[in-house]
Amino acid sequence: MEPQSPHRGSDVRGPVLYVESETLGSEETFCTQVFDDDRRGEYRVVQLTSVRSFDSLRESLAAQLRRIDDPSEAAVIIATPETPEEATVTRVGEEVPLYGFWVEPDDLTGISIAFSRLVERWEGTEGSMKICLRDVESLLPYHDPELLYRFLNTVLATLQGAGASVHAHLTPDAMDPRTFRMFRSLFTRVVDADGTELDGSSDVDGAARGQPASPASGSDGEPADADGDLADRVSPTRMTDDEIDSFLQSEGYGVLAFAGEPPYAVPISYGFDPANRLLYVQLSRYDGSEKRARLTESSEVSLVVTRYRRPDKWRSVVVDGTVERLTAEEARRRNVFEAYADSSLASVDVFTRDPAEVAFDWYVLDPAETSGRRSVGSLDGDGG
């Protein structure tokens, strides 16, 4: 079960990269490509930018909203060292809420949190979410390119998992060839400054399913310069069943995606029974639970488990199947607690609901299809 973009009329899979010949001008402060031109329903827009003036972003958006169909809500995440203490909200166009988040450019975690807050706020709402990543080059003075690559890889996978349509703008002249080629490998479609679509640099199926793309690499496993003799792509390798079982048993943490529109996915701990190749998860149950509503409609789920060290050292496994609720007696008979003993703890927000209102049930995930991919380079302790 692959994440499906809720953007109606779009057949684009994976993120899109727009290659710019020069830095975008001030008259293009708010990206026009996030706006919905088919006017078939509600949509929300988000832009990551280094433009420091919230007022200029608001004015640019307001000017564009005079000519297009207004989004339901809009947000900007501003990466600037001049950060106010708090986020803000104003209104543009025909009463469109515009949220502003300021994050210091050396705080990649803060940028991720800002995206997460928006995804959580819009969880379960109607319509699509369209996101533009601009001025990514402005983050390079603060971060090693490989760290920034890992951040972008994670953000793209997370946002697509939430059903967002994502694109980015990059200026090759603003970075060295190796860094540009590494970033470019994250995108399934690449469009140059003249509007010509170039051959994609990433693995489309892998990117669409949350699996890391593989940037260029030399013979020593390190990313190679795009113009060097060793500029070559590290081809992802399919994992054997034994490798998949070993990986699932060693991790214990992943992202569980439920069927339905719009897509819905949550981080989750799991236990793995290698003898029967079954997985066990514990899901909360309460009035209004989105997970409960999804399982009422369909028991089909996908579990994505990844481990990442650097561009040439990663693993990713996707388990497609169905879940079935277990009684307490069934959970004991199956030794679920033993299988769950080595799981990694997923984050739990204990402040959003009275614990007395929440119950937990055990489920077994019976795989219909399991696939795994890994980089050629090995990870510590995996022997690969």
List descriptors.
nine-stranded mixed β-sheet; about 375 residues; eight-stranded antiparallel β-sheet; alpha/beta; Pnp Oxidase, Chain A; disordered N terminus; Rossmann fold; about 30% strand; globular
Write up this protein:
22% of the residues lie in helices and 31% in strands. The protein contains 9 helices and 19 strands. The protein has a 9-stranded mixed sheet with strand order 4-5-3-2-6-7-1-8-9, sandwiched between helices. Strands 12, 13, 14, 15, 16, 17, 18 and 19 form an 8-stranded antiparallel sheet that branches. Strands 10-11 form a two-stranded antiparallel ribbon. The chain is globular and about 65 Å long.
Provide a quick synopsis of the model.
The chain is α/β, with parallel strands linked by helices. Helix content is 22%, strand content 31%.
Characterize the overall form.
Answer: globular
The CATH class label of the largest domain is Alpha Beta
Percent helix, as a range, is 10-25%
pLDDT average, as an integer?
76
CATH fold topology of the largest domain: Rossmann fold
Report the order of strands and helices.
Answer: EEHEEEHEHEHEEHEEEHEEEEHEEHHE
Sequence of strands across the biggest β-sheet: 4-5-3-2-6-7-1-8-9
Largest sheet: 9 strands, mixed
- Uncertain spans: 1-12, 200-235, 345-353
Radius of gyration: 22 Å
N-end to C-end Cα span: 28 Å
The number of distinct β-strands equals 19
Beta fraction of the residues? Answer: 25-35%
Question: Structural class per helix/strand content?
Answer: alpha/beta
What is the subunit organization of this protein? single chain
What's the architecture of the largest domain, going by CATH?
3-Layer(aba) Sandwich
Estimate nothing, just give the exact number of structural domains. Answer: 2
H/I helix tally: 9
